[in-house]
Each structure stands twice: as C-alpha cells, then as structure tokens.
Amino acid sequence: MKATKFDKFIILLFFLGTLLSFNVKSYFGDSGTTAFVYKNGELVYTIDLNSYKEYTLEVPDGAVKIAVIDGKLYMRESPCPLKICMMSSPIFRAGDSIICVPNRIVIKVKGEASEELDSITR
Amino acid sequence: MDLKKRNNLILITAAVAIFLLTMIDSISIKKFTRSEMMMDTLVEISVFGMGKDKKKLENAIDSAFTEIDRIEKLMSRFIVTSEIAEINASDSDEIYISSETAYILQNSQVISDLTGGAFDVTLAELMELWGFTGDSPSVPDKSAIERLMKHTGNEKYSVSGIDTIYRVKLEDPEVKIDLGGIAKGYAIKRAAEVLKESGVKSAMVDAGGDIVVIGNKKGKPFNVGIKSPDGEGIIGVIGAEDIAIVTSGDYERFFIEGGVKYHHIIDPATGYPARKCKSVTIIADDALVADALSTAVFVMGAEAGIQLVDGLDEVEAMIIDSDDEAHFSQNAHKYIKLKEKE
After folding, report:
1. pLDDT score of A3
2. Distance (Å) from the alpha carbon of A59 to chain B's nearest alpha carbon
3. B21–A21 CB contact, under 8 Å
4. Complex prediction ipTM
5. pLDDT, tens digit, 9 for 90 and up, residues A5-20
6. From-to residues of CATH 3.10.520.10 in chain B
7. Residue from the list A11, A15, A119 with its beta carbon closest to the beta carbon of B211
8. Which residues in chain A have Cβ-Cβ distances shorter than 8 Å to B225?
9. Which of A1, A101, A117 sits opposite B5 (nearest CB)?
10. β-pair type (B222-227, A119-121)
11. Contact state of A106 with B233 under an 8 Å Cβ cutoff
12. Residue numbers in chain A where pLDDT is lower than 50
C-alpha cells in the first residue's frame, strides 16, 4: 500500500490537530476577564467585564445589586448590616474578589490578567 | 491505493490521534479548585497535578476542607459546642481541653510575650462591645471599655497538661477567649499539611487572603498580590514557594461614625482600634505565626514591628503605616516586588 499525497496530508492534519488542541487550550482556555458570582456556594452569574449591565440577587433581607461599568464590577446595593462589600473597591483583575459574608455571596474575577496573580492577600 | 485501504488508514490515524490526546491529557498538569464559605470567609483550595491523578487530588481537597471544618468546630467561639465556647460559658475556673486547643492557647501566650502583649486572645468581650461581630457596631462608652479592660490580658489564663490531659485555668472568671487572630492561620496550616500527607506537591490554600502555598506552580513561584490599603488594586506581588502569607488591614471590617473610621483590630493596651498602621503583611514558614504576628505587628506599629520581625527566623514583613509609608524587614525584598506607581 502506498500512501498518496492526500493520505499524508490527512495524517499530518490529525497529528497537528492533536498537538494544537493542547496549545490552544493552555493559551486561550482562560482568556478574557470574567467575574463569577456565587451565592451559597452555587454559581449564579458568569459576567463578562466588558459588558455594561446590572445584576440582581435575591437574599433573605432584600436584594444585592451588582453593576459592571467600564470593565469594573461594583457592589451597588446590599441589605447586609456593615455594607463592607459596598465599600470594597471595584474589582477587575484576576484574583480580585468581593465577599459579602452575611449574604453568603462571593464574586471572584478570574481570567488571563496582565500580572497573572494566583491570589491576593488582604 | 483503493478506497477501503485509505479509509482504514484514516481510521488508524484517528485512533492514534485520540490515544495521544488522552495520554497527553492524563500527564499534563491541571488545576483542581474548590471553594467553600468557612470561618466567616471564602476558603479556596487549588491543587496542581496530573490529570490522571484527578480522583486522588480531589479527595485530598475534600480532606483539607474537612480538616478546616473540624478546627472551626473546635475553636470558633460562635459555635456553642466548640471548646472555646465551652470555656467562655463555663462557671468553673478550670476546664479540660484537647491538646490541640492547649497548643493554640500556649502559642498565643508565647506570641503575646514576644510582642509585649500586642497579641491578645482575651478581647472577646471588647469585640462584642464594639459590635464588630454583630449587626450594628458603634463606638462604646469609654467607661464600658475601661470596665471590660480589667478582664483582658494573656496572664488571665494558664494552660497546663500532662500526656494528653490538658486544662485551661481562668485566673479571672470574667475573661473570655477569642482565637480569631490565630485559629484561621492554624486551620490553613493544617489544611496544607493534610494536602501534603495526601501526596500533593503543588497547591494553594487561601482563606480570604490568608494564604499557604505548597511547592510552586509549574516550576515558577505562585504570584500573590498585596492589596492596596487605600483604593483599588495591589501595591506589590509576592513570589511564593512553600510559605504562608497573612495580611491584616484596617479595611476588612470597619464602620464609620462621626466621619471617623473604626476598624476591628483592637489595641489590647487601649481597648480602641490600633492606629499606627493601615496594613501589615507577614511572610513566614508557619501560617499560625504569620496570622498572629500580622495582628500583633499591626498593633505595635512599623518601628517596633520591623525590629521584632528582624529578630525572628523565617519571618518577613511589609508594613504600610498610617502615613502611607511602606516599611520592610531585612529580607522582605527577596519575596516582594513592589508595583510601579501608575
């Protein structure tokens, strides 16, 4: 059996595809900056920080409101007593987070950041 | 070549490609992460390992979370069945405790002695008075603070024990214990130990910014940003490998009254929030030490804090004082790379 040019092309295509699938995954798998909103440990929103939008989460004492403006995520309203989550700076870098303990809400930014931070000590 | 042979060749090539894909996937380094709300914060455990070890690594993460949960149930004063809640509620002046709680209380006294009393686990009543643990914090009456200050101080309790029988003796029946400044460090230290015992070589345990790092990440140190005490973003990055990092800041839990910010790090000498620092980051090989020292150095201030840290092995510090000036221990620059101002 002698392989034709077409056969060789197909074989090469398979192997290149196999190898490239890993490079594509490792280089682009986490690209973009995205905020993940968890309530009671469950993921409730995945937010593209390049969008302009307001999100509402119902909590026992009312509603928590989150807004994305100019690539940053703000905690706009929360019925929690100390309002520490609302006083937090807006988040936008991978590793940034806002945590509202009374309402058990966690917002984390993940993605490919310029500084490639694994976490932030605070 | 006829059509049948060509089809066979394509099928074989596809099978080999799929096999290679599966092989590479199983030996490539992957990140396995899980988060849970524990100890009044978000705890995130990330483990790096080969895809083929997925089950083992996920079990290790489960075990680490179970360990944190166990320690919280043992040492949180807010859990009525914990040993600390039992000590605080007891009418007796001598209470039997586990060797683990004894270990933490003894370490608390050592760190208290080392820091001239700046670290103090007997401030539970004061924290209640300020309302930092409740819904409506406010500045208390001076007289109420002075009254409670009579029942604080690490000399107000003693720990004794032989073999596995340990007791805490309260010298003052009104003293109340709060391990909030040290137990979280111990919990993440133990979680990291559990991960190591399970064979994990690369991981990060992050409890609301109190961090323990095991090994490195794909041959490079983990990058841990240091939050700016004022406003957005970070002020520097720590290259972390097999170390613990804990920060105490005046921005994590606070309220504003009469235009003045009151935060939750109380100076044991005054009963009021400590005013010398905005943030203190401690890098140490032991998370328990890092946790307790971050609070103590915050109270002590930059000058005394740096002097203390420079006298200790395996401990480094970065302090932002109340005038926004950064202070570093002798070898802190080995770990910390400051971010250039934008």
Report:
1. 66
2. 16
3. yes
4. 0.87
5. 777 776 677 666 665 5
6. 29-74+192-338
7. A119
8. 93, 95, 115, 117, 119-121
9. A1
10. parallel
11. no
12. 23-32, 113-114
Give strand ranges (E) for chain A: 33-39, 42-48, 53-59, 62-69, 72-77, 97-100, 105-111, 119-121
Under CATH, to which class is B29-74+192-338 assigned? alpha beta
- Could you say which of 1.10.10.10, 3.30.420.40, 1.10.357.10, 1.10.3980.10 is the CATH number of the domain covering B83-170? 1.10.3980.10
Q: Which residues of B touch A117 (CB under 8 A)?
A: 223-225, 234, 237
Residue B99 CA to residue B94 CA, distance in Å, equals 15
Chain centroid to CA B245: 8
Mean pLDDT, range B43-68, rounded to an integer: 95
The SS3 call for residue A70 is coil
Domain ranges of chain A: 1-29, 33-111
For chain A, list residues whose CB is within 8 angstroms of any CB belonging to chain B.
Answer: 1-4, 7, 10-11, 14-15, 17-18, 21-22, 38, 40-41, 81-82, 84, 89-90, 93, 95, 97, 99, 101, 104, 106, 108, 115-122
Exposed e or buried b per residue across B164-197, where buried means at least 16 C-beta atoms within 10 angstroms of its C-beta: eebebebeeeebbbbbbbbbbbbbbbbbbebbee
Spatial distance between the Cα atoms of B58 and B88, rounded to a whole number of angstroms: 37
State the CATH architecture for A33-111.
Sandwich (2.60)
Structure tokens at B317: 């510090």
